[in-house]
Design goal:
By secondary structure, this protein is an alpha+beta fold. It contains 16 helices and 11 strands. Strands 1, 2, 3, 4, 5, 6 and 7 form a 7-stranded antiparallel β-sheet that branches.
Length: about 450
């Protein structure tokens, strides 16, 4: 009893599996890492170019992910940058810096492949596509005297993110091409693949079945919310790669396209796209699930006001569905606000951690199937593990207090009477968080 009252007993050890959720965000730098950028910039202005490069790569490196490596031998140096299924390899000396990433092997010249890459060359600002014998690659180079941290960051980001996206698409779209330089990619366990596939099928089937019960005209707004939230949920929880990711990304483009098509027509097109996504052969689905390291986010950071406005808009639109007894739609609209931001922006790491906690409450069956030991919400009993949820929120805040001293999630405002009210009060608190660093 005394152990329970005063916390003298040993804390229960969490045995949750190490599973990646969501896309990589480089908006996760500690205070020490952020200072490295300033150091690199100052050293460059002092014309201490090699010291500036060392500080820049230190800034870029995520020590936890081990995603960037720099090797120096006097004035000569080499580096590797991991981004998904690709590795950018580079080298430099007193005069120049070079970086290159392999995309695929092309044993025989292909006009359609060359045409695609020629077209895409016009979209690049720093890098370019190249052909080295049979090897398709991307390249970037710069004089050391002009390789300031800002230029290096955006050039290497372009090189890394474009290559990571294009290699899978090229090989899958052109059968004459061969995959290359992917030995560093880690396979995930078959049991994890099975769970991700099963739940993806389940979520899509349940959503489409539910939408058939709604009036397409009257509920066009709610239907759009459900379909878009489904995209963001699969993207974050399942993390599809390659062709699978590309097909999923097409769905929100249908809705957000600047055309004159009515909402009902867009909703129908999104539902058809989900049916196509659902029809992916299981073996192809599995091929597009793997673990990898990344160094750059594929989206950019936004001010917290932008994020707060999205959350506020969604929660405001949720009210009618809540008050008219459509709890499932209300839950999903609350989820939409923060999941749209997680999908569209590079969020600060504590906000992403709070989002993952939100998802763990909303989808306990999925997390338990993946091997997580804590059931934070039991839907059948409508019972929350409120103490555990609050403890996790406080832990996240404590871990990031040094960088975000004004972070204050008011857990007393949370409601644990049902999932709609929990989602609403939880996301309300996310809306009002303060991510000022001073």
């Amino acid at each position: 009893m005394l152990d329970k009252l005063f916390g003298w007993g040993k804390k229960k050890q969490e045995t949750n599996p190490s599973i990646r959720f969501g896309r990589y965000s480089d908006n996760n730098k500690t205070v020490e890492k952020t200072n490295k950028w300033t150091e690199a910039d100052n050293l460059f202005k002092e014309k201490k170019y090699h010291q500036s490069i060392d500080a820049f790569f230190d800034y870029l490196r995520d020590d936890e992910a081990d995603n960037v490596k720099l090797h120096r031998n006097g004035s000569d140096f080499s580096f590797e940058i991991y981004q998904g299924s690709k590795i950018v390899r580079g080298k430099g000396d007193n005069d120049h810096l070079y970086a290159e990433v392999s995309l695929a092997n092309m044993p025989q010249l292909s006009v359609p492949v060359m045409r695609r890459l020629l077209d895409q060359n016009f979209t690049l600002y720093y890098s370019r596509y190249a052909l080295d014998n049979e090897r398709l690659c991307m390249r970037f180079d710069s004089d050391i005297e002009t390789a300031n941290p800002n230029k290096l960051y955006y050039a290497l980001k372009e090189l890394s993110t474009k290559a990571d996206k294009q290699d899978d698409l090229l090989v899958q779209d052109f059968t004459s091409l061969q995959m290359v330089d992917t030995e560093h990619v880690d396979e995930i366990p078959e049991s994890e693949k099975e769970t991700k596939y099963a739940f993806t099928q389940k979520w899509i089937s349940e959503a489409l079945a539910y939408l058939e019960t709604l009036d397409a005209e009257k509920f066009s707004g709610g239907i759009a919310y459900l379909l878009l939230t489904l995209v963001f949920k699969i993207d974050y929880l399942v993390c599809p790669e390659g062709k699978l990711q590309a097909e999923l990304e097409k769905i929100p483009h249908i809705y957000f396209a600047k055309d004159e098509k009515p909402a009902v027509e867009k909703n129908n097109a999104m539902m058809e796209a989900f049916k196509k996504f659902q029809s992916f052969p299981k073996e192809d689905f599995f091929k597009n699930l793997f673990n990898s390291k990344s160094s750059f986010a594929i989206v950019t950071p936004q001010t917290h006001k932008t994020i707060a406005d999205v959350i506020y808009g969604a929660n405001n639109n949720m009210i009618w569905y809540r008050d008219n007894n459509y709890p499932f739609i209300a839950q999903q609209i609350c989820e939409y606000g923060i999941s749209f931001c997680q999908y569209s922006y590079s969020l600060p790491k504590p906000l992403t951690q709070l989002f993952q906690l939100f998802m763990q409450v909303n989808y306990p069956d999925y997390f338990m199937s993946l091997g997580f030991t804590e059931e934070l919400y039991n839907a059948e009993k409508n019972k929350f593990s409120s103490e555990e949820i609050i403890n996790k929120i406080n832990t996240i805040q404590t871990n990031w207090r040094k960088k975000y001293p004004k972070l204050d999630f008011k857990t007393a405002n949370l409601r644990f009477d049902n999932l709609v009210n929990f989602n609403n009060t939880y996301t309300n608190e996310l809306e009002f968080l303060n991510f000022d660093t001073i």
